[in-house]
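WARN retry 2 of 3 for item q-0093 after timeout on previous attempt; input resubmitted unchanged.
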Amino acid sequence: MMQLILSILTVTSTSILAQSAMSIDLNSFTEPLQFSSSISLLLAISSISIAPFFLISTTSFVRFAIVLGMIRNAIGTNQSPPNPVIISIALFMTFYVMTPTWINVYENAIIPYQNNEITQDIAFKNGIEPFRTFMLKYTRQQDLSLFIEFSKIPEVTNIKEVPIYVLIPAFMISELKTAFQIGFMLFIPFIVIDLVVSNILLSLGMFMLSPVMISLPFKILLFVLVDGWNLITRGLLNGFQ
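OK item q-0093 returned
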């Protein structure tokens, strides 16, 4: 799995690096063509640092990370589970959901390009199409229309012709709305527990006792009894089926 992901993220960089390394000679500092290759090499190296942002902005990672973080806040356990655990769970769930897309990219773009069957431009186009299809499936029409309007691009007759720089932010805010909708529904049962505990303490005259201290064990107990992590994971994964 990790080998497949690294291949997808670095195929363009690797190809440029190889071409640049083969073309370097003693006159590389005086010929304009070699200077252009050097710039391409620099851009290829710099593009590697963009890979994490690409992973976050074009996959299901945003929804997973936000929902898992909100359920922790709803229970009220502060830093348990810690952020690295939540990020790791969200990351591997993203791998699970995005594997068909990455396999499509690998088979239709990376392998033909490595075998010199297609050019770099065609490989890039074939590689971006599976991500475009994935994002269009989960992007709300209102969000897409918003960014098309402000991008000042010509009128789009086919939704598949929307530029990728317009589609990505529309997809991200759609995922943000979906994640917050899910988070709101997760908060409701825990808020009910807080209200019940607060009213009981108030009726007993225990004004100095923090309701959070009493309600926290009950919220954890409820979450464990209903097998909360399994239910949340199942629901998140079903949202991308």
